Amino acid sequence: MIQPLRKLLTFEEFAHWKPDGERYELHDGVIVKMPQPLGGHEEVTGFLSIALSVQCYQSGLPYIIPKTALVKPPENESAYSPDVLIINQANLINEPFWKKESTVIYGTSIPLVVEVVSNNWRDDYHTKVGKYEEIGIPEYWIVDYLALGARKFIGNPKQPSISIYFLVEDEYQVTQFRGTDRIQSPTFPELNLTAQQIFQAGSSRTASSTP
Fold first, then answer.
1. What sections of the chain are H helices per DSSP?
2. What would the CATH number be for the domain defined by 37-203?
3. Start and end of every Putative restriction endonuclease domain (predicted)?
4. Residue 61 has pLDDT above 60, yes or no
């Protein structure tokens, strides 16, 4: 039996269709419903949003953390909904989709993006690494607090890891942090957090120090 071809959507069609209240992404023209996040995922995301908001304020730079904005590769019918997205507000004047679609396409608008790993970990480690590099996003975190990713990404035996990708001559290099390692962020060099403090946020325990 011949299966009917799935209709591929343009970004504009996706943006007009996307309902409020649920998270969807567009992957090469295909709508992908994001999995319902676990409680721990929400705790880690919330903790990082607060910690990075403090850094945005203290840096004195025009950075904001929007709630539902999308990231779109310029030459691709895709749109991603990061767990934490930091935007350079000063560059929004150059963004063609910002006012109507709350979407950014330029790496100069996105100092830092964070994905907290869920069961769809392949998207974070495979698809989004390539797409975020292509866009030119200077810094990309993959926070794998449950050690869900493949061993080639987080080691054997698996262990909770934070992988920070940063652009060097338009290519990502990666550094990993575990346990008591202090996070080294090119965007926020004054950030005072260990990997374990971030992981603990996802286990309903209060982190021991202030970001």
1. 11-17, 39-59, 98-101, 121-122, 128-135, 151-154, 195-200
2. 3.90.1570.10
3. 11-195
4. yes
